[in-house]
UniProtKB/TrEMBL annotation:
The keyword Transmembrane applies. This is Uncharacterized protein. Residues 48-63 have a biased composition (Basic and acidic residues). It comes from Prasinoderma coloniale. The chain crosses the membrane at residues 266-284, 296-315, 336-354. Residues 137-164 form a coiled coil. Residues 1-16, 24-37 have a biased composition (Low complexity). Keywords: Coiled coil, Membrane, Transmembrane, Transmembrane helix. Residues 1-110 are annotated as: Disordered.
Length: 361
């Protein structure tokens, strides 16, 4: 870069000496010559700097586009490099700065080539490196696991629904069998008791027992219908009762119990049947005072005749297997039996012991 500038200065000096014999060179001409020489030197310097910059850019591009960086490059960049290597791009962008795939190394001739780029880099991005293959395998495994879990959950739910339906069917069959057994027991106790009293004590006792038994069977039918109307699902928990203002905790508990008993028992339609026993007795005796006389104790005994069937069923279920040795049980279930059965038996015993016809017909 310095030789052209030196030659320019020598040429300017020689022209100045030649002009000294005649007329001296003008300062403008000398300045122009010197400026031409300087501009020529600067042009040569900038051209060399451009070559070095282009070489650095080519080396940087070669390193950036080597095989270990290809999978990080965007698809647009890969397509552009492939197009330049194949000559698809007709535009002349000046010095080529395309990269090579040969681990960032240039060819022995000094030019950059695409190397093995066309062999695999033009394939779809998802199948180029092992990274994408491993990720696809993981996604496939997760999808298979999710599908297996969903299938297992569906199978378990189907089995649970089938077991629930089978249990419901068996429970309904057992409940229907129990209802038929208790209904037969109530009818047998009502009819058998009325027939026995008619033969033993006459028509008055039989009529009293029969009317009471009819009211009791009607009460039993209403109770069964109420039970059938209940939902088989688990009932929701009761809402918390509001605190009673001005009452201690024990008194508030008693008030809540009385209110619940009143709402569950006294406000039912079946309660009208036991309440009608005394009015029926009084009305019957007032209308027909001379022929058949109804006795109030026998009316109540007949009303609780359906309980005798319940007592017999509880005996056959709890006591008889224990005494027979078929299975070891805990005796009579008093909660299942209820206090009303013992009340009915007590009323029967009281009437037989102290009734008006206790000495015989």
């Amino acid at each position: 870069g310095r030789a052209p500038a030196a030659r320019g200065r020598k040429l300017a000096a020689a022209s100045g000496e030649g002009a000294g014999g005649g007329e001296s060179a003008s300062p403008r001409t000398a300045a122009a010559d010197s400026s031409d020489g300087a501009s020529g030197g600067d042009g040569a310097t900038s051209e060399g700097e451009a070559r070095r910059r282009a070489a650095r850019d080519d080396a940087r591009e070669a390193l950036r586009s080597s095989s270990e960086y290809v999978w990080r490059m965007p698809s647009e960049r890969i397509e552009a490099l492939v197009g330049k290597a194949r000559g698809d791009d007709d535009e002349d962008d000046g010095p080529s700065a395309s990269a090579t795939i040969n681990e960032g190394k240039a060819d022995p001739t000094g030019s950059l080539s695409i190397g093995a780029f066309n062999s695999w880099a033009s394939m779809p991005v998802d199948t180029q490196p092992d990274f994408f293959s491993a990720r696809a395998d993981r996604e496939a495994e997760r999808a298979a696991e999710r599908a297996a879990r969903e299938a297992e959950r569906a199978e378990i739910e189907a089995a649970a629904i089938a077991a629930k339906e089978e249990l419901r069917r068996r429970s309904d069959a057992e409940y229907a069998d129990l209802k038929s057994t208790l209904d037969r027991g109530a009818l047998v106790c009502a009819g058998g008791g009325a027939a026995y009293l008619f033969l033993a004590y006459g028509p008055d006792a039989a009529a009293s027992y029969g009317v009471g038994a009819a009211l009791g069977i009607a009460y039993w039918g209403e109770l069964v219908r109420e039970v059938d109307a209940l939902d088989g699902q688990n009932s929701p928990p009761p809402e918390p009762a509001p605190a009673q203002a001005g009452l201690p905790e024990r008194a508030a508990w008693a008030v809540r119990r009385l209110r619940g008993a009143f709402q569950r028992g006294l406000l039912q339609r079946r309660i009208l049947l036991p309440a009608a026993v005394a009015p029926v007795w009084a009305l019957w005796n007032a209308v027909e005072p001379g022929e058949v006389h109804l006795g109030l104790p026998l009316l109540w005994v007949g009303f609780f005749a359906y309980k005798i069937g319940i007592v017999y069923w509880a005996y056959t279920e709890e006591v008889a297997p224990t005494w027979a040795g078929a299975e070891r049980g805990g005796g009579i279930d008093f909660k299942r039996l209820g206090y009303s059965a013992w009340i009915a038996l007590g009323v029967v015993a009281f009437y037989l012991a102290f009734g008006p016809d206790s000495q015989g017909p």
